[in-house]
UniProtKB/TrEMBL annotation:
<dbReference type="InterPro" id="IPR003772">
    <property type="entry name" value="YceD"/>
</dbReference>
<dbReference type="Pfam" id="PF02620">
    <property type="entry name" value="YceD"/>
</dbReference>
<comment type="function">
    <text>Plays a role in synthesis, processing and/or stability of 23S rRNA.</text>
</comment>
<dbReference type="GO" id="GO:0005829">
    <property type="term" value="C:cytosol"/>
</dbReference>
<dbReference type="GO" id="GO:0042254">
    <property type="term" value="P:ribosome biogenesis"/>
</dbReference>
<keyword id="KW-0690">Ribosome biogenesis</keyword>
<comment type="similarity">
    <text>Belongs to the DUF177 domain family.</text>
</comment>
<protein>
    <recommendedName>
        <fullName>Large ribosomal RNA subunit accumulation protein YceD</fullName>
    </recommendedName>
</protein>
<dbReference type="InterPro" id="IPR039255">
    <property type="entry name" value="YceD_bac"/>
</dbReference>
Length: 165
């Protein structure tokens, strides 16, 4: 069992703290629902800081590999995870006032006891493609949908009616 790290987000950011570690993909149960298998290890770094205006943030970096299910052929496909994000820390009132269109970075609620793996898992889930597929030409549809079909002439049926003498 992997020890889940918890942080006080505002203290973490104000003191410029940093966490770096590796986590098995199997430790992220919500992510497992989207994966072909639970194998793989992700490395991550969470770094706190203050921007030029003194607003606290978390910089998140995640790298690794997982396997998704191709929606065309239904077989496993390797999917590289490479994610870098800055999340601004806000209280509930500040989050309620935010206009999503004006904000350059995503914002999250500042918490005194945040589960870092839950945060990472959510960021990974948001970055996954909705319908992952191998690149075109790499696989065939499981039901043969993309198999090449013979083009039939609309008059081919008439050829069968033709009487041979």
């Amino acid at each position: 069992m992997y020890a889940r790290p918890f942080i006080d987000t505002l203290d973490f950011a104000r003191n410029g703290k940093e966490i770096s570690a590796e986590v098995p993909v199997a430790e992220m149960p919500r992510l497992l629902d989207e994966l072909e298998n639970p194998q793989g290890i992700l490395s991550y770094t969470v770094r706190g800081g203050l921007d030029k205006q003194g607003n606290p943030f978390l910089d998140i970096g995640i790298a690794g590999q997982c396997q998704l299910r191709c929606q065309r052929c239904l077989s496993a496909m390797d999917y590289p995870v490479r994610l870098d994000a800055r999340l601004m820390l806000r209280d509930q009132a500040a989050l309620d006032e935010l206009d999503d269109e004006e904000e350059e970075c995503d914002s999250i609620l500042a918490e005194t006891h945040m589960d870092v793996l839950n945060l990472l898992e959510e960021e990974i889930l948001l970055s996954l493609p909705i319908a992952p597929r191998h690149e075109s030409g790499v696989c065939q549809a499981a039901d043969g949908e993309n198999a090449p079909k013979e083009e039939k002439s609309p008059f081919a049926v008439l050829a069968k009616l033709k009487v041979v003498k």
